[in-house]
C-alpha cells in the first residue's frame, strides 16, 4: 500500500491560509470600527436646519423665470412626525428673482425627495482637546440631542464655555465671565439656578430678569463675536445676482433701477451694466423690487422673516476713461460710501448725501491706478459693524474693531436691546462720477441673521423667555462645560434657542445640566467634508426615484 505524504502537508498549508484570511478580515473590521469610533465617521443630514450650508431631504429646481438653480426643503421619508406637507400646489420662491415656481417634481406627497448631504465628521480633535484641537466657535459640529441622548444633531457651535452670550439684531454678542463684576455674575448665576428650579418643577412663575444696574454694566461690555473669513464665505447668502436676469419685470421682480428719472447715464437692462459718464453726483442705481429680509429659499412655508442690514455688493469693474465708482450701504440709519477712482485713490466715508470734496473721510488709501479696458473685482461690505473694501480679492480698507484705531464705530447694545424689531437697511446703491465704465457679475449678498422672534412663545415652557434662550433680555451664562448651538437656517432650526425638553440622562445630572446648552461630553466631532451630495437622477428613467450619478461638483469642504 502506498501513501501520499504530500496531502497532509498541503492540507495544513490550506488551513493556514484560511486562518490568515479570517484573521485579516477580523483585523480589518476592528480597524474600521476603531477608525469609525475615534477618527472619522460618516453622517447623513436629515433636515434643512443648516441650509444652505448643508441640505437635508430636499428638491432641486431651476427657476422658470431667471434660471437660478436652488433647493427647497422636503420631509425626510424616515421621519414619521407630523408636519407640513409640500403637495402639488406648493410654491418654491426663487431666492434671486422672487418668482414663485409651481412645477415641483419632488414633493412630500410624491415621496421622491433627494437625499440629504452625506458628510464626514472628525472625532479625534475633540479627544485631543486643547486650544488647537478643541471645540471652536463657528465649527459645524455633530452632537447628541439633549432630548434623548441618541439622535445626532448637527449645528454651528456659537457659544463657548465661561462666557455670557446674547443674540441681538442678527449678531452674536459675548462677554468672558472674567470681565463681569462679582455682583452681576451672582445675579446671572442666580437666574441660571432659577431656571433649574423651574425645569425640575421646584419653582413656578416667569423667569426673573437682570436688574437695571446689571444690564447697564453688561451693555458696556458685550462685544460682537466676529466670524472667521473662511466661515463667512459659507454664510454669505445670495440676495440678487444680475447674471440671472428675470425674463419679466413685474412689480415684485428685482432690478437695478436708475435713481434719476430723466437723463440718467445708467443702462441696466442687460447683464452688463453700463455707465455712459456723468458729473451728476446723484446719478446712481439702486436695487429695487427686492425685500431685504432674512429669508431662506429652502423653506417652502416660513414665518415672516426679519429685516436684515449686513450686505456685500461685488462686481467686475472695467473703466473706459478717467472715472469713479461709489457703493452705498446703510446700517442703523447711518450711510457709508466706498469710493474707488481710476487714479488709484480709495476711501470710505460716512455721509447722508453723495460725498463731496469737503466730506470728512473715515478711511483712505492707495492702490495701483486702474487702466482703461482692464477689469478689476471690487466689493464693499458691511459685516458685524465692520466696513471693508476689497479690490481683486485684497482688503484695501477696513474699519477697525479697536476703539483706538481710525474708522472704529460700535453699536450701542442698550439702544439695540430697546428696538421692538430690527432696523433694516436701505437698498444698496452704486453711483458713477466722471467718465464711462462697465460692470459685470454684479451680485448682492447678505450675512446670516440669527434672531429670536419675541412675538410668540417659541418654547412649550410657559415660564421661559419669549423667543427662547439667549434673547436680549435673557442672555445665557455658559459654564465651563457648556456650549450653545445654532442652525444657519435660523427660522427653520430648533436649536439651543428653542430647546424645551430633555432626556432622563440629562435630568439625572441635576443642576449640572442647563436647558439650552450641550455638555462637552455630548459633542461627537467637527464636520469637514460633504463626500456624497444627493446624486443626479437619470432623466430617461422617469420611474427611478433616486439618484445614481455622483454629483462631484457639489462635493465640498464644510466651513
Chain-wise SSE layout:
Blueprint: H1 6-39, E1 40-44, E2 58-62, E3 69-73, E4 92-93, E5 100-101, E6 118-122, H2 124-128, H3 130-133, E7 140-144, E8 152-159, E9 163-168, E10 171-176, H4 182-199, H5 212-219, E11 223-224, H6 229-235, E12 237-241, E13 255-258, E14 266-267, E15 273-275, E16 284-288, E17 311-319, E18 323-331, E19 334-341, E20 345-350, E21 361-366, E22 376-382, E23 387-391, E24 394-398, H7 413-417, E25 429-434, E26 437-446, E27 476-478, E28 482-486, H8 504-507, E29 518-519, E30 523-532, E31 556-557
Antiparallel strand pairs: 1-6, 2-3, 4-5, 6-30, 7-8, 7-30, 8-28, 9-10, 9-27, 10-11, 12-26, 13-16, 14-15, 15-26, 16-25, 17-22, 17-26, 18-19, 18-25, 19-20, 20-21, 22-23, 23-24, 28-29, 30-31
Structure notes:
The structure is a single chain. By secondary structure, the protein is α+β, with helices and mostly antiparallel strands. It folds into three domains: 10-34; 119-226 and 451-529, no CATH class; 237-446, Sandwich (Jelly Rolls). 15% of the residues lie in helices and 29% in strands. It contains eight helices and 31 strands. Strands 1, 6, 7, 8, 28, 29, 30 and 31 form an eight-stranded antiparallel beta sheet that branches. A hairpin with a 6-residue loop joins strand 2 (58-62) and strand 3. The model is unreliable at 1-5 (pLDDT under 50).
